[in-house]
């Protein structure tokens, strides 16, 4: 099996790339989806977050108030407190998922889509020192999706249309982008870079070509392991 990390800045199109990888046959775990599941009432992240931040992050229906949590994260500068709770739980869940994929499909291309593959300082067991790079032990290959900053901003604003004013969405984009590494810094560490500055069809074509390479490498690894 080949373990692949798929990342990119907000608005880069990494989720669109992940969706097409899945269409082609890859096994895909999206960190946002895993995190949302762990934040449901009764789940580990929900319990830890509500204990840490108190009733202000619980909505009237008893679920986690994600908008309130976002305000705490970005307006109060407490992102790392939330990451320290959520990241180890998500990484542990994805490690368990990868093990099940390996048993079921030894030659699979198992892709984890996450915005913060390089940035996170956490493993399934907690934080690591500044000199370590935990992503190196999680993945065999890392793919970065890039796009010009203003293109990413426009995509994010369009995605938020109807839920917040354009000016608010632009400011929200800036806050989120500031918490991530630049495309250049990510690309310098990546094994593969997908430049998503054109049409969706162009991105899908690039994913198609890359998936053929990843699938071949995974098959070779599976043969060597037999």
TrEMBL record:
Enzyme class: transferase
Location in or out of the cell: Cytoplasm
Reactions catalysed: 3'-dephospho-CoA + ATP = ADP + CoA + H(+)
Annotated Pfam families: CoaE (PF01121)
Protein's UniProt name: Dephospho-CoA kinase
Organism: Terriglobus roseus
Transmembrane regions: none
Pathway of action: Cofactor biosynthesis; coenzyme A biosynthesis; CoA from (R)-pantothenate: step 5/5
Residues the entry annotates as binding ATP: 11-16
Entry EC number(s): 2.7.1.24
């Amino acid at each position: 099996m080949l373990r692949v990390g798929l990342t990119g800045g907000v608005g880069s199109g990494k989720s669109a790339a992940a969706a097409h990888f899945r269409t082609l046959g890859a096994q895909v775990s999206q960190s946002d989806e895993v995190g949302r599941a762990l934040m449901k009432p009764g789940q580990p992240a929900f319990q830890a977050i509500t204990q840490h931040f108190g009733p202000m992050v619980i909505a009237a229906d008893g679920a986690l108030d994600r908008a309130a949590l976002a305000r705490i994260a970005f307006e109060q500068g407490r992102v790392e407190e939330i990451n320290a709770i959520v990241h180890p739980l998500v990484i542990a869940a994805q490690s368990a998922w990868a093990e099940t994929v390996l048993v079921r499909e030894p030659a699979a291309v198992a892709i984890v889509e996450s915005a913060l593959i390089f940035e996170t300082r956490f493993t399934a067991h907690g934080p690591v020192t500044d000199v370590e790079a935990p992503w190196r032990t999680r993945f065999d290959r890392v793919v970065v999706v890039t796009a010009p900053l203003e293109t990413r901003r426009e995509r994010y604003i369009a995605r938020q249309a109807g839920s917040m004013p354009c000016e608010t969405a632009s400011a929200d984009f800036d806050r989120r982008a500031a918490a991530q590494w630049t495309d250049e810094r990510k690309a310098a560490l990546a094994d593969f870079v997908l430049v998503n500055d054109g049409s969706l069809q162009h991105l899908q074509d690039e994913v198609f070509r890359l998936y053929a390479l990843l699938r071949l490498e995974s098959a070779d690894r599976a043969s060597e392991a037999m």
